[in-house]
Amino acid sequence: MPKIRNVFPSLAVRRRGLMSRAVHHAWAWVQETGSVTAQHPGRLRFGRIGAGTRLAFPQGTVFGEPWIELGDHCVIGEQVTLTAGLMPDLDLGPEPILTLGNGVVLGRGSHVIADTSVSIGPDTYCGPYVYITSTNHSYDDPDEPVGKQWPRMEPVVIGPGCWIGTGAVILPGARLGRNVVVAAGAVVRGEVPDHAVVAGAPARVVRSWDPEAGWQPPLRTPAPVPIPEGVTPEQLAAVARLLEDPADGS
């Protein structure tokens, strides 16, 4: 009898393991099937969706797609919201409202709200839960609820090669230059010059690049050493194993 009793827990564990694998396989199939690409746009009809660009499933709120243009090889994470116009089914004219350059990355849960034009330059990377908007509530009338007052709109331009950290907010009228770093949680408005690091709420420049003096104030960590040309993934994996256990290389 003790042996028989021990069989049932093992059967239950095996059954649960099989069910778990089945659920994970099914979810992986749903994610793959529900993702949006140029070849498989689903219900979304973007003004342009470039080669190699993918919107992960599940998507966030998406509307105004005819006025949204996505460059090549963009990565749009799960639950990312992309909107053009104040609401769906508006005629926004002949020009795109929201444009992403080639190689843009939008992290999970990010929002890009383009009631007027928003342009994100190529190779700009956004961490999770970044909020970029060309619209802000107004509160001029003290007697009218803020949400019912007509909002203010200003175009947003984010230059190429920027890095925007987790939870950062880019407000209407912001113009970021090339290779700007926005710290996590920063709230950015106004103009940010090329090669600057901004942090805080409101954000201010905390580090900038001088062609003669370099980064000011100076960086506290050494620059990373790039991987030499011609090194294969297999060689990198072998080096990683050596670093994990140097005794293996003896």
Give short descriptive properties of this protein:
single chain, 250 residues, nine-stranded mixed sheet, seven-stranded parallel sheet, 18% helix, 26% strand
Short description:
The protein has 2 helices and 24 strands.
Secondary-structure map:
Blueprint (H helix, E strand, L loop, with lengths): L1 H33 L13 E2 L4 E2 L6 E2 L4 E3 L4 E2 L4 E4 L13 E3 L4 E2 L4 E4 L3 E3 L4 E2 L4 E3 L1 E2 L15 E2 L2 E3 L4 E2 L4 E2 L4 E2 L4 E2 L4 E2 L2 E2 L3 E4 L4 E7 L3 E3 L16 H12 L6
Kindly describe this structure:
- The relative contact order is 0.07.
- The chain has 2 helices and 24 strands.
- The protein is α/β, with parallel strands linked by helices and 250 residues long.
- The longest helix is centred in the N-terminal third of the chain and has 33 residues, at 2-34.
- A 9-stranded mixed sheet has the order 2-5-8-11-16-19-22-23-24, with no helix packed on it.
Q: What is the residue-averaged pLDDT?
A: 91
List the helices and strands in order: HEEEEEEEEEEEEEEEEEEEEEEEEH
The main sheet comes to:
9 strands, mixed
Radius of gyration: 24 Å
What fraction of the residues are assigned to beta strands by DSSP? 25-35%
Total count of strands: 24
Spatial strand order of the main sheet: 2-5-8-11-16-19-22-23-24
Distance between the termini: 53 Å
The poorly predicted ranges are: none
Total of helices: 2
Q: Classify the helix fraction into a percent range.
A: 10-25%
Would you tell me the structural class of the helices and strands? alpha/beta
Shape: globular
